[in-house]
């Protein structure tokens, strides 16, 4: 599929997203449509008779004539009203973080704004159809032909397209949705100071000049002429001219043959435009940069380059995280811990024992990341001793045995001798200097016992030999430990005997 095909597909997806938003939150659409309908009902039923009597050239000068006069202004207001929702939607996307999510996805950059634009066009079409329906229910009469209706539809569509893209720009520039909802309000007010509700000729001189030259007046005059069946060609041309945005590349003068011919300078400008736009520079900013002097343009290019470098670094970090998703232990552990675990595997240590080590390192890395290199270095020194490796291998073989297996006692003897020797030679701080709180050590012990159940029995045997703890090693009195173990076992046997001699309960 070509790049244009991907852009079209992604734009349709974003359009579907906006249509679902409209269906999920119909109150926003009803509010945007309700404002023009409210003004239509207010001006027709409350002011209609009085305002209609002052219309020049009206055959009857009543409510019906004023309805025909005000309808183009209400239609223009409807388009402007929908633009508020478009600006708010774009600003919400820009500030709520969804755009950052879209940037990590393989979608066309133009599709998000295109989806907003197409969704707004659909919303505007629904709003205009509703206003037209209400106007006809109120008694609107028109003598427009099919061609004039087509012209009116095209004019409103062009106005809607221009207003929608302008609203999109306002939404992009707004710092938050609240500001985006305020900026387009001026467009709802423009029909009041144009020819939408009263003839511009009836206004004072200064206001009349503004009303005659503001962009909505030719649109409303052209729409009124098309609805009445007598369009004014100059009004229609002015309306189209206001809706058509001027391009970034200046048009050259026509030559003697009537064609516009672009020179080498225009090609250079076109390359600059495409390069800036491809780097993500908004078109409004491109226009400013093309008109800037050399120093300002160089500074802007440096800023763009720095922004692109930051985006590249961020995307590289995303790539590293994604690559780590498939690498198992490295997703939650520092590289030196992963290397230590791989070293255990290479020495033939049972994978279940490696999992015990891994499950212990994960909370340690989250709690004290700064001490991980120190602890890993200590671990490397320890696994260099054959006696400790033999302990790992023996414990792995003991995982499939019962708690009363005599080889667990042999393993406890070996481990106790090794720990005692290290404590005597290096000091007890060397044996356990992790400085872990008791509750945290109990949590890590529980993780180890769940993965390797014989480890719990091994700890009991170790306690009888003067050491206790899996995560946090501590010296204990072996005699007291033996008595505590015997008392606990005697208590368990008594409870078991009581439960065994108890008669079965009655049904």
Describe the structure.
This protein has 507 residues and is mostly helical. The chain contains 24 helices and two strands. It has helices at 3-24, 26-46, 48-53, 63-95, 98-103, 111-137, 146-173, 177-182, 185-189, 205-213, 216-228, 233-243, 264-278, 283-290, 294-325, 335-346, 351-367, 372-383, 386-398, 406-426, 428-431, 438-451, 454-463, 478-501; strands at 467-468, 474-475. The chain has a two-stranded antiparallel ribbon with strand order 1-2.
Sum up the structure in keywords.
507 residues, mainly alpha, 73% helix, 1% strand
In a nutshell, what does this entry contain?
With 507 residues, the protein is an all-alpha fold.
Structural class: mainly alpha
Distance between the termini: 73 Å
Per DSSP E runs of 2 or more residues, the count of β-strands stands at 2
- The residue-averaged pLDDT reads 75
If strands are numbered along the chain, what order do they take across the biggest sheet?
A: 1-2
The assembly state of the depicted protein chains is single chain
Given the C-alpha coordinates, what overall shape results? elongated
Secondary structure layout:
Blueprint: H1 3-24, H2 26-46, H3 48-53, H4 63-95, H5 98-103, H6 111-137, H7 146-173, H8 177-182, H9 185-189, H10 205-213, H11 216-228, H12 233-243, H13 264-278, H14 283-290, H15 294-325, H16 335-346, H17 351-367, H18 372-383, H19 386-398, H20 406-426, H21 428-431, H22 438-451, H23 454-463, E1 467-468, E2 474-475, H24 478-501
Antiparallel strand pairs: 1-2
């Amino acid at each position: 599929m070509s790049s244009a095909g991907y852009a079209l597909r992604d734009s349709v997806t974003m359009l579907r997203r906006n249509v679902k938003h409209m269906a999920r939150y119909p109150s926003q659409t009803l509010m945007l449509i309700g404002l023009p309908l409210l003004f239509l009902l207010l001006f027709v039923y409350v002011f209609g008779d009085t305002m209609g009597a002052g219309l020049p050239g009206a055959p009857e000068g009543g409510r019906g004539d004023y309805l025909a006069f005000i309808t183009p202004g209400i239609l223009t207001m409807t388009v402007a009203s929908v633009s508020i929702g478009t600006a708010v939607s774009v600003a919400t996307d820009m500030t709520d973080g969804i755009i950052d999510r879209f940037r990590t996805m393989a979608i066309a950059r133009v599709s998000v704004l295109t989806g907003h634009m197409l969704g707004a066009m659909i919303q505007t079409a629904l709003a205009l159809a509703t206003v037209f329906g209400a106007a006809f229910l109120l008694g609107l009469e028109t003598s427009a032909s099919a061609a004039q209706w087509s012209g009116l539809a095209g004019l409103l569509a062009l106005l809607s397209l221009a207003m929608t893209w302008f609203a999109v720009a306002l939404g992009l520039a707004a710092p938050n949705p609240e500001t985006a909802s305020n900026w387009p309000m001026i467009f709802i007010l423009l029909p009041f100071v144009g020819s939408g509700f009263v003839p511009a000729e009836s206004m004072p001189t200064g206001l009349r000049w503004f009303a005659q030259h503001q962009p909505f007046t030719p649109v409303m005059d052209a729409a009124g002429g098309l609805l009445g069946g007598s369009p004014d060609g100059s009004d229609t041309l002015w309306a189209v001219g206001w809706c058509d945005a001027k391009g970034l590349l200046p048009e050259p003068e026509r030559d003697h043959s009537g064609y516009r011919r672009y020179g080498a300078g225009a090609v250079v400008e076109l390359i600059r435009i495409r390069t800036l736009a491809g780097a993500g520079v908004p078109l409004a900013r491109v226009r400013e940069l093309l008109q800037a002097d050399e120093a300002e343009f160089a500074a802007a290019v440096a800023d763009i380059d720095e922004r692109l470098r930051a985006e590249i670094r961020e995307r590289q970090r995303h790539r590293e995280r994604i690559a780590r998703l498939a690498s198992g232990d490295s997703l939650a552990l520092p590289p030196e811990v992963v290397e230590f675990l791989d070293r255990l595997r290479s020495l033939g240590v049972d994978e279940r024992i490696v999992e015990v080590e891994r499950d212990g390192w994960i909370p340690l890395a989250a709690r004290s990341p700064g001490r991980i290199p120190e602890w890993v270095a200590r671990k490397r020194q320890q696994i260099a001793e054959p006696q400790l490796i033999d302990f790992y291998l023996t414990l792995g073989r003991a995982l499939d045995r019962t708690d009363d297996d005599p080889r667990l006692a042999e393993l406890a003897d070996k481990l106790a001798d090794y720990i005692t020797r290290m404590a005597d030679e290096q000091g007890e701080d060397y044996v356990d200097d992790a400085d872990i709180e008791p509750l945290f050590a109990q949590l890590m012990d529980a993780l180890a016992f769940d993965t390797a159940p014989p480890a719990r029995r091994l700890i009991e045997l170790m306690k009888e030999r003067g050491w206790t703890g899996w995560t946090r090693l501590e010296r204990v009195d072996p005699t007291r430990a033996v008595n505590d173990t015997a008392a606990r076992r005697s208590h368990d046997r008594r409870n078991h005997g009581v439960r065994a001699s108890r008669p079965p309960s009655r049904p």
